[in-house]
């Protein structure tokens, strides 16, 4: 059973921990570099990327996160976590930094403000069982992916059809939506398989 950390500076940590346990992993909160050293994979939760970034700096976690992700630690980010894993962001606050790792440009709050939270069907390549009823909350979208990354999931219907909302690059996975709050464990199962080296 792999031990997967959930970055516990801010955001929906508990929901990810539950989803990871349902997907067959042991979930632990990660706030300090020593805790980061002890995990086989890391989830960066949904929340608010500007707050998460400031706390990562305050807790002296930004550099350790960058180092471990660059050294190959598997990581999955949802929503704010997607922003944290992006090499480039648009519409960040002044000076906003990320952990990076995925060769993509992500636009913050692209789908609209808090009131514009919505659900839409999303298809994810290589994930069976039909489209996700994906929940988006002030979500980013992926403007573009570089040569090293692969667009994995798209909105499949409605006026946002075609938008890239899931990306993978090697051991790194990111979604604009929040599978941790809908009880659909397929994304977490995919990530657990990635951590085990099976996917
Ligand atoms: N808008 C948030 C941000 O910029 C992300 C929202 C979310 O994680 N639900 O970080």
TrEMBL record:
InterPro entries assigned to the protein according to its UniProt record, in alphabetical order: Class_I_gatase-like, PdxT/SNO, PdxT/SNO_CS
Upper classification of the organism: Bacteria, Bacillati, Actinomycetota, Actinomycetes, Streptosporangiales
Family: Belongs to the glutaminase PdxT/SNO family.
Quaternary structure (record): In the presence of PdxS, forms a dodecamer of heterodimers. Only shows activity in the heterodimer.
Active-site annotation: 79 (nucleophile), 178 (charge relay system), 180 (charge relay system)
Protein name: Pyridoxal 5'-phosphate synthase subunit PdxT
Keywords: Glutamine amidotransferase, Hydrolase, Lyase, Pyridoxal phosphate
Source organism superkingdom: Bacteria
Binding, L-glutamine: 47-49, 108, 137-138
Biological processes annotated in GO: L-glutamine catabolic process; pyridoxal phosphate biosynthetic process; pyridoxine metabolic process
UniProt organism field: Actinorugispora endophytica
Biological or metabolic pathway of the protein: Cofactor biosynthesis; pyridoxal 5'-phosphate biosynthesis
């Amino acid at each position: 059973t792999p031990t997967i950390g959930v970055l516990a500076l801010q955001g929906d940590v508990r929901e990810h921990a539950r989803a990871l346990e349902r997907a067959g992993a042991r979930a632990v909160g990660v706030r300090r570099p020593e805790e980061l050293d002890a995990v086989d994979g890391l989830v960066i939760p949904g929340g608010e990327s500007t707050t998460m970034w400031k706390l990562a700096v305050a807790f002296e976690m930004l550099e350790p996160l960058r180092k471990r992700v660059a050294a190959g630690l598997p990581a999955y980010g949802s929503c704010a976590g997607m922003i944290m894993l992006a090499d480039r962001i648009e519409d960040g606050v002044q000076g906003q930094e990320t952990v990076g790792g995925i060769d993509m440009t992500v636009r913050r709050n692209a789908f609209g403000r808090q009131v514009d939270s919505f659900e839409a069907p999303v298809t994810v390549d290589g994930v069976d069982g039909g489209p996700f009823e994906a929940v988006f909350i002030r979500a980013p979208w992926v403007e573009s992916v570089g040569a090293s990354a692969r667009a994995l999931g798209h909105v499949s219907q409605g006026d946002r059809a075609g938008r890239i909302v899931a990306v993978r690059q090697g051991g790194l996975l990111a979604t604009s939506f929040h599978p941790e709050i809908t009880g659909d464990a397929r994304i977490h199962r995919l990530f657990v398989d990635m951590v085990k080296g099976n996917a």
